[in-house]
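User: I've been trying to design a sequence by hand for this structure and keep getting stuck. Would you show me what you'd pick, starting by listing the structure so we're on the same page?

Assistant: Good idea, let's start from the same input. This is the structure you sent:
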């Protein structure tokens, strides 16, 4: 094999979470395939410091466990969760169900698995799944309900604020009287990612749920960031999900746990959902090691979510003042900021990345997400880099 050389960057992070050091090096691959690393002392210019300090706004899934989570993981009491013997998982499931006002819960590895298990448990084969045109299940979960469950989709247009027009929803619900495929479940989302992280109020959720319930159709909520919704509304999370039959929410987004989601609902439903989880390969053994971090997330991280919302708002206001950057401030209600570039610009996002701002985006725009590792100083750094990017692009 011919000799290859590659340039890379390694980032080291202090235990405090925000002290970032960096070094550059190169690695050579010998004919035997081994890798050797040579480091070069870091440069200390202001320009290099900006390039090496990463502000990671790609998602709230990028966070590292807190010190309390790491301690809890190390000290977790465990058993075999498949047999119901893991006390840490059991405690997590009980607490999650109580907080959301439901009877029972089942711990799953991801939000996608939680949503999939819920929909497959609600529906019989061939029944339709009604969902919004901008929902996460439709766009980002790889058609699992259709592929694995044989469940066709009935997609209803989402409004700007993540709801559905009630007449549109009413027309999408199929009943036995119609002679068509029956509706098996209505899926809603709160907060609503692709609509800007907007919060759907309990009243709007009830209006949509009532249409489904009047037709005998259950309602599932993709509540990946439902604690952000509760924080924005200033109400207990149980009030947000009161009208939902089942709810999935993530520990690994705004709550900052390293892994895991949970599905809550009635005891009867969760009993069946456990079988679905096993069918999907989701049965776990000594899962208390990761459930311990999720329990810390659930009990300690929700109260600080308004900090993320405030920083997202300040970021949106500052970005929106820049020429060529458009932001719908009315939809910036939690920790997500979508921006558009008008006219489209292929250089803006790469220029931000060169300045140490990690984000998802392209020539037409992008998304920024705040989380517990983003500080006020990071917002200042991002806005400064965005202004410089606009100026660089203008030249």
């Amino acid at each position: 094999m011919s000799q290859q050389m590659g340039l890379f960057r390694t980032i080291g992070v202090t235990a405090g979470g925000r002290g970032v050091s960096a070094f550059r090096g190169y690695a050579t691959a010998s004919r035997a395939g081994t890798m050797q690393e040579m480091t070069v002392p870091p440069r200390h210019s202001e320009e290099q410091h900006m390039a090496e300090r990463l502000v990671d706004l790609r998602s709230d899934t990028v966070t590292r466990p807190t010190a309390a989570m790491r301690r809890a993981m190390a000290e977790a009491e465990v058993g075999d969760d498949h047999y119901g013997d893991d006390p840490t998982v059991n405690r997590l499931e009980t607490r999650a169900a109580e907080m959301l006002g439901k009877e029972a819960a089942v711990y799953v590895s991801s939000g996608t698995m939680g949503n999939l298990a819920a929909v497959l448990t609600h529906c019989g084969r061939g029944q339709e799944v009604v969902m919004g045109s901008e929902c996460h299940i439709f766009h980002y979960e790889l058609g699992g309900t259709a592929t694995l469950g044989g469940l066709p989709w009935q997609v209803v247009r989402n409004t700007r604020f993540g709801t559905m027009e009630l007449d549109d929803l009413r027309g999408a619900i199929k009943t036995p009287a119609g002679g068509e495929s029956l509706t098996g479940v209505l899926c809603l989302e709160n907060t609503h990612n692709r609509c800007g992280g907007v919060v759907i109020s309990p009243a709007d959720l009830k209006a949509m749920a009532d249409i489904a319930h009047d037709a005998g159709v259950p309602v599932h909520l993709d509540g990946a960031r439902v604690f952000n919704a509760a924080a924005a509304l200033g109400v207990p999370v149980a009030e947000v999900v009161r009208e939902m039959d089942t709810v999935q929410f993530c520990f690994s987004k705004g709550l900052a746990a390293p892994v895991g989601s949970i599905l809550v609902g009635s005891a009867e439903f969760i009993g069946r959902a456990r079988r679905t989880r096993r069918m999907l390969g989701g049965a776990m053994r000594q899962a208390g090691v990761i459930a311990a971090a999720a329990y810390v997330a659930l009990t300690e991280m929700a109260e600080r979510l308004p900090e993320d919302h405030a920083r997202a708002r300040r970021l949106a206001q500052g970005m929106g003042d820049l020429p060529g950057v458009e932001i719908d401030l009315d939809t910036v209600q939690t920790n997500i900021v979508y921006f558009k570039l008008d006219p489209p610009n292929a250089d803006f996002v790469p220029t931000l990345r060169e300045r140490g701002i990690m984000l998802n985006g392209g020539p037409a725009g992008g998304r920024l997400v705040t989380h517990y590792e983003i500080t006020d100083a990071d917002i200042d750094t991002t806005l400064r880099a965005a202004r410089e990017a606009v100026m660089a692009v203008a030249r």
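That's my pick for every position. To get oriented when you compare it with your attempt: The CA atoms of residues 118 and 273 lie 7 Å apart. The first helix runs from residue 46 to 52.
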